[in-house]
Amino acid sequence: GAGVSQTPSNKVTEKGKYVELRCDPISGHTALYWYRQSLGQGPEFLIYFQGTGAADDSGLPNDRFFAVRPEGSVSTLKIQRTERGDSAVYLCASSPQGGANSGELFFGEGSRLTVL
Amino acid sequence: AQSVTQLGSHVSVSEGALVLLRCNYSSSVPPYLFWYVQYPNQGLQLLLKYTSAATLVKGINGFEAEFKKSETSFHLTKPSAHMSDAAEYFCAVSLKAAGNKLTFGGGTRVLVKP
Predict the structure, then answer these.
(1) Which tens digits make up the pLDDT trace of A4-49?
(2) CA A112 to CA A109: how far, in whole Å?
(3) Contacting residues for A103 by C-beta, under 8 A, at least 6 apart
(4) Which of A30, A60, B29, B104 has the most Cβ atoms closer than 10 angstroms to its Cβ?
(5) Distance from CA of B44 to the nearest CA of A (A)
């Protein structure tokens, strides 16, 4: 597809379970970003990849959250021992070159996570 | 570190009236500034961006924004609102040195009355 693709679009899970959210960026984009958007708030930065490596993970709230991008394309956000407070829309975005272009990020439609 | 403040979480305008959404930023160095729009059940879409060229920036759907360094502002305007402008609007700032990581404001939801 031409845009950023995120799966699943909706995920309902129980407290304490493990969850994986997938992001497929625009082909050729080297930078990939994860954000979290809680109801009524703006998106909050979680982590940023440049290629395969996490260039900035300062937004990850705690060690239950982890993200990987092993081949520099698809990324997976992993949440262990989910809590009700993790309920939010998780947004993925990509960019042609994270530090060298004019800064526009291209967003997917998000994965809505509900923890019961 | 940079930050963004959007004044007013909700704005109601009549169709055909001026739309004005306020955004103030804080940054230690000249930033890039953006306005994104989020329609119901859709992803964030770029409206316009300021990247140190012209201070008056024109975007899609008739929107424009003016960068005012002295006021640290980047307010968004549209002369005449359409029903299709009903959405949530986010102002955001990024720094090239920080990998273009966007910091968003809290958003302003726009309601357009017929």
Answers:
(1) 999 999 999 999 999 999 999 999 898 999 999 998 889 999 999 9
(2) 9
(3) A95, B32, B34, B49, B51, B94, B96, B100, B102
(4) B104
(5) 6
